[in-house]
Amino acid sequence: MPATPIIIDCDPGIDDAIALLTAFVSPELDILGITPVAGNQPLPGTLRNALQICELGGRSDIPVHPGCDRPLLRAPLHGQFHGRNGLGNTELPPPAKSAEETGAAQFLIDTLTHAAGTGRRVTLCCLAPLTNIAVALRIRPAIAAGIARIVMMGGAYREPGNRTMTSEFNVLADPHAAHIVFSSGIPIVALALDATHQVILRPEHVADFVATSGRISEVLGALMAFWDRNQPERYGSRGGPLHDPLVIAWLLAPELFETRRARVFVETASELCMGQTIADWYNKSGLEPNADIVTRVDAPGVIGLLRDRLSRYAARGTAA
Ligand code: BDR
Ligand code: CA
């Protein structure tokens, strides 16, 4: 089977970093580029973290294109649970690798225009506020023809929000961008909090991952340990939901996920409910569905898959 061409749009971010590390050792995926955006950290932080994670994972070959440094219309909003540097205060060596000159929107336009021409359409893995994707779509709507699908982490349907009562961070941070993406007609697989809260990484998983992940184990252990939200009343145990790595897991093993199609709307008017994602489960709108929303996840299957992938670093020696 030929590798699936993907672009990873992200805001590392602890869980973004784990998603990147998982993708790096998955030969089923051909990573054409990484496009950091402002999100969990201001852009300089997410860009630096992406470069550092590429080096940690031995994938300095992947181009990193700097994205938008703020949301389309709203004031910047940054992450709460990623420490002062976005990587749980884990200090990695300053990156030797540099970001590309070409910005993320131009890279998306060039790559997806080419993909539309060749028919080798690209899957966009979206782990962050959707600003980069929305800007590229607004500049060149025809790039939609070069996108196989968007697999995104974001939103909250039957689950309450994690940043406000109603809203999940990635959508709240740029609700107008999310509206543009959901209105684009591009096939979307939506991994919202409804899905990610089904996969809780508990301390025993962290210990197991650390024991098996070879040369990245120390950093991985630190990232994952910082991720422990210690909210057993919310998650049913110690630990935390993994969020972004589920996008990569869906690409590698979609059989671990159940979906339901629905029309999704994004609230952009009410301050109380800003960024809320609303699924039209019973077709009250009369509009065609625009997303496959993940409703159920095989959590042990996903955790086992991630463990298997990250353990591949054990066989890769110490060289980057
Ligand atoms: C999302 O918000 C960010 O803080 C995480 O990286 C993830 O993408 C979860 O709501
Ligand atoms: Ca993220």
Offer a concise description of the structure.
The chain has 320 residues and is an alpha/beta fold. The chain has one domain: Inosine-uridine Nucleoside N-ribohydrolase, Chain A (Alpha-Beta Complex), CATH 3.90.245.10. The protein has helices at residues 14-24, 43-56, 104-118, 131-139, 169-173, 175-182, 193-196, 203-212, 217-226, 232-235, 245-252, 299-310; strands at 4-10, 29-36, 122-126, 147-153, 188-191, 200-201, 240-241, 257-266, 277-280, 291-297.
Detailed description of the structure:
There is one protein chain. With 320 residues, the chain is an alpha/beta fold. It has one domain (4-315): Inosine-uridine Nucleoside N-ribohydrolase, Chain A. It has helices spanning 14-24, 43-56, 104-118, 131-139, 169-173, 175-182, 193-196, 203-212, 217-226, 232-235, 245-252, 299-310, and strands at residues 4-10, 29-36, 122-126, 147-153, 188-191, 200-201, 240-241, 257-266, 277-280, 291-297. The chain has an eight-stranded mixed beta sheet, sandwiched between helices. The relative contact order is 0.16. The structure holds beta-D-ribofuranose and calcium ion.
Structure characteristics:
320 residues, alpha/beta, Inosine-uridine Nucleoside N-ribohydrolase, Chain A, two-stranded antiparallel ribbon, 12 helices, 34% helix, binds beta-D-ribofuranose, binds calcium ion
Number of helices: 12
Radius of gyration using CA atoms only: 18 Å
Q: Specify the overall morphology.
A: globular
Order of secondary-structure elements: EHEHHEHEHHEHEHHHEHEEEH
Helix proportion of residues, in percent? 25-40%
CATH topology: Inosine-uridine Nucleoside N-ribohydrolase, Chain A
Mean of residue pLDDT? 95
Poorly predicted sequence stretches spanning 5 or more consecutive residues: none
| Spatial strand sequence of the major β-sheet | 2-1-3-4-5-10-8-9
How many strands, which pairing sense, and closed or not: the largest β-sheet? 8 strands, mixed
Our estimate of the beta-strand percent is 15-25%
What is the top-level CATH class?
Alpha Beta
The N- and C-terminal alpha carbons lie at a distance of 27 Å
Structural class: alpha/beta
The CATH superfamily name is Ribonucleoside hydrolase-like
